């Protein structure tokens, strides 16, 4: 226990040699590594907090990166890593915040006593552990972000929008697979009930290709909507998709298709009983 | 004990609201009762509300189509209203398209649909 | 559970619903599973002359699934391919019972022998 206290005290002494100077140099070094992508003031605050926490931890006798004395420091590092991950910094740039302190301390070695060198090595090991801790936290934060994005993508990629009283639309973007189509199908049909809409437009302008399966899913959605008492129009069929559909021999039957979303909307409004009058007084 | 589904009358329209899980015998009874009532009350339209129905299998689906065909012969239009999305998807997958049955999202829209088509006929 | 009377079809639906909910199937998948069970319960009654249904949860590929097995000792099905064809019926129905039910579930097995009976197995996996 005494030896531990003693060791910490030496580390502490190492850090307190010109404390202000050391922290300032540290900040300058980190700032250079991040190429000004974080404001100096913010970095100042972050690193000063870290420095204080490190000094406090050493004063409390902590030397183990996973020890209780360093919990405050770890909390600060966690926050820093998460922020860096969210702001799109690389893992190296994140760990730099910790490792730069080692570089700043190097001059101490010159002309230092044997005890100074030992203290430096011990502190260096502690900083290495903390650096690894930063990277672990960073990775975990990134994984969380990716998982959240995957969920959002499924939700976001299938918005059902209300265009008018009684008219809703789903603009489909990207490749349709069977799982996504099922989500789209259910969302569209539920939206018909929720909004009491009798007209729905499925816009496939953003769909790069239509194969038999996708066409099949579209047809089923439209038939299901009809069973519920609503009408669907498909819009945004590009020339090459029209060619594919015909070449595949897919029967669209009596399903209404329109070239553009605007045309489909005009048709849907007409069916919904809305009359459009231009400012000049003429009717469209 | 087989239940009978009550048939209500609003003006020239007969209204059937299905609230229970139908067994096949109840379905058959409903079909017979409706045919009788259409004639007895000289109805011009039939609205079948299935908002509360969680399952429509091929038997019930066939009943809906049959009722529509029978009532058309007796000069009445049939509208099925309130089909749930999950039921509609299942019917499509099952291969049942209920050809000849008119549908509407809810009771109000169903009645409006009957009103429009009757006005067209008059 | 035995299937011998008309209102047993309703009871099978109720049983299938409970199972589908315990299996945490999505609403649409629940509806599909119950509808398939309803079709097969009626087949068991009408064509198989009555029989039994057994239900349970199964686990496979880390997913939970709802399982229903319909068994009868009726006349059996002479031509399986024909019986699974849309629109073909031997009993005056729509001919969508077997073929439609097969489309509604993820796994469908039909085991039949003329004169011995028919067993149909359904599984719907939770996503």
Automatic annotation (TrEMBL), chain A:
Which Pfam families does the record match to this protein? RsbRD_N, STAS
Q: Does the keyword Zinc-finger apply?
A: no
Provide the transmembrane region boundaries.
none
> What are the STAS domain coordinates in residue numbering?
157-268
Q: This protein's superkingdom?
A: Bacteria
Task: Tell me the SUPFAM superfamilies matching this sequence.
Answer: SpoIIaa-like
Keyword set includes Phosphoprotein:
yes
Q: Which UniProt keywords apply?
A: Phosphoprotein
Signal sequence extent: none
What InterPro entries does the record point to? Answer: Bact_StressResp_Reg, RsbRD_N_dom, STAS_dom, STAS_dom_sf
What's the protein name?
STAS domain-containing protein
From what organism does this protein derive?
Answer: Streptomyces albipurpureus
TrEMBL record, chain B:
Fetch the PROSITE patterns from UniProt: STAS
Task: Please give the coiled-coil regions recorded for this protein.
Answer: none
Segments forming domain STAS: 3-114
Check the record and name the Gene3D superfamilies matching this protein: STAS domain
**What PANTHER family does the record tag this protein with?**
RSBT ANTAGONIST PROTEIN RSBS (PTHR33745:SF1), RSBT ANTAGONIST PROTEIN RSBS-RELATED (PTHR33745)
Put simply, this protein is called STAS domain-containing protein
Q: What organism does the UniProt record list as the source?
A: Streptomyces albipurpureus
Taxonomic lineage from the root: Bacteria, Bacillati, Actinomycetota, Actinomycetes, Kitasatosporales
């Amino acid at each position: 226990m005494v030896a531990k206290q003693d060791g910490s005290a030496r580390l502490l002494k190492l850090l307190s040699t010109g404390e202000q100077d050391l922290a300032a140099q540290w900040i300058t070094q980190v700032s250079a590594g991040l190429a000004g992508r974080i404001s100096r003031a913010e970095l100042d605050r972050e690193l000063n907090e870290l420095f204080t926490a490190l000094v406090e931890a050493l004063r409390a006798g902590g030397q183990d990166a996973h020890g209780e004395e360093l919990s405050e420091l770890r909390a600060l590092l966690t926050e820093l890593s998460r922020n860096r991950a969210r702001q799109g910094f690389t893992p190296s740039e994140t760990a730099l915040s910790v490792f730069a302190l080692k570089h700043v301390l190097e001059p101490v070695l010159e002309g230092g006593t044997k005890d100074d060198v030992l203290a430096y090595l011990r502190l260096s090991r502690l900083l290495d552990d903390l650096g690894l801790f930063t990277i672990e936290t960073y990775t975990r934060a990134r994984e969380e972000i990716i998982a959240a994005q995957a969920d959002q993508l499924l939700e976001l990629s299938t918005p059902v929008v209300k265009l008018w009283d009684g008219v809703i639309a789903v603009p489909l973007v990207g490749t349709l697979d069977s799982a996504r189509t099922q989500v789209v199908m259910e969302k569209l049909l539920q939206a018909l009930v929720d909004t009491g809409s009798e007209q729905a437009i499925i816009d496939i302008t953003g769909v790069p290709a239509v194969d038999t399966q996708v066409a099949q899913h579209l047809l089923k959605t439209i038939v299901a909507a009809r069973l519920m008492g609503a009408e669907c129009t498909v819009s945004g069929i590009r020339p090459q998709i029209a060619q594919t559909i015909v070449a595949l021999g897919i029967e669209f039957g009596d399903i209404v298709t329109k070239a553009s979303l605007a045309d489909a909307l005009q048709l849907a409004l007409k069916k919904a009983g809305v009359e459009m009058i231009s400012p000049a007084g003429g009717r469209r | 004990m087989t239940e009978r589904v009550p048939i209500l009358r609003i003006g020239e329209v007969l209204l059937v609201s299905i609230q229970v899980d139908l067994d096949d015998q109840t379905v058959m009874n409903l079909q017979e009762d409706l045919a009788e009532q259409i004639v007895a009350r000289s109805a011009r339209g039939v609205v079948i509300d299935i908002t509360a129905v969680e399952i429509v299998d091929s038997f019930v689906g066939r009943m809906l189509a049959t009722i529509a065909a029978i009532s058309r012969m007796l000069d009445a239009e049939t509208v099925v209203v309130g089909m749930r999305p999950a039921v509609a998807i299942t019917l499509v997958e099952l291969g049942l398209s209920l050809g000849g049955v008119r549908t509407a999202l809810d009771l109000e829209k169903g009645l409006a649909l009957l009103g429009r088509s009757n006005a067209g006929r008059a | 559970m035995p299937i011998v009377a008309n209102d047993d079809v309703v009871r099978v639906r109720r049983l299938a619903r409970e199972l589908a909910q315990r299996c945490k199937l999505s609403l649409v998948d629940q509806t599909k599973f119950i509808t398939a069970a309803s079709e097969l319960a009626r087949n068991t009654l009408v064509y198989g002359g009555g029989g039994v249904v057994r239900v349970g949860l199964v686990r496979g590929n880390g997913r939970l699934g709802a399982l229903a097995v319909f068994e009868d000792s009726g006349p059996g099905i002479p031509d399986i391919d024909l019986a699974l064809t849309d629109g073909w019926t031997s009993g005056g129905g729509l001919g969508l019972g077997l073929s439609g039910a097969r489309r509604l579930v993820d796994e469908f097995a039909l085991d039949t022998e003329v004169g011995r009976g028919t067993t149909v197995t359904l599984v719907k996996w939770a996503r």
